[in-house]
From TrEMBL:
Pfam families: Pep_deformylase. Its cofactor is Fe(2+). It comes from Saccharopolyspora shandongensis. The keyword tRNA processing does not apply. Fe cation binds at residues 89, 131, 135. This is Peptide deformylase. It catalyses: N-terminal N-formyl-L-methionyl-[peptide] + H2O = N-terminal L-methionyl-[peptide] + formate.
Amino acid sequence: MAFRPIRRFGDPVLRMAAEPVTVFDQRLRSIVADLLDTVDAPGHAGVAAPQIGVGVRVFSYRVDGEIGYVVNPEVVELSDEVEDDVEACLSLPGLGFETRRAQHAVVRGVNADNEPVTVSGSGLMARCLQHETDHLDGMVYIQRLDPERRREAYRQVREQSWFWQ
């Protein structure tokens, strides 16, 4: 359908929990198509519907050549093994901060036809699944940082030219 612009940190849609999808119709298929077109751009690993201004529980991903989406995702498994690694977000362009995430994640949901879907992965895929599900819960990754890192992240956000646009 169309590449959609990404909402930036500070936009209220990013702070609100997305509504579960209950109607599986052409509108949903259009949202999914837009998410897939948007995530297919260079440098994009995942895009959640709130990032394109739509408050429903859907995200797309593109990691290691694998492209897909999940409607109404739930994280059903996280490994005990965690790792700090630099994480970034399209809604916070130009910034990246060490963020602790589980090294393996499993997400269950459905597709646009309301058929079951399970996506699992380790490393970047696990980070993406957790990150995008957070967006659907109204959370941006810098909210997960420890207090000292979070203060520094918010300071850097305030210094960005895009923050006041």
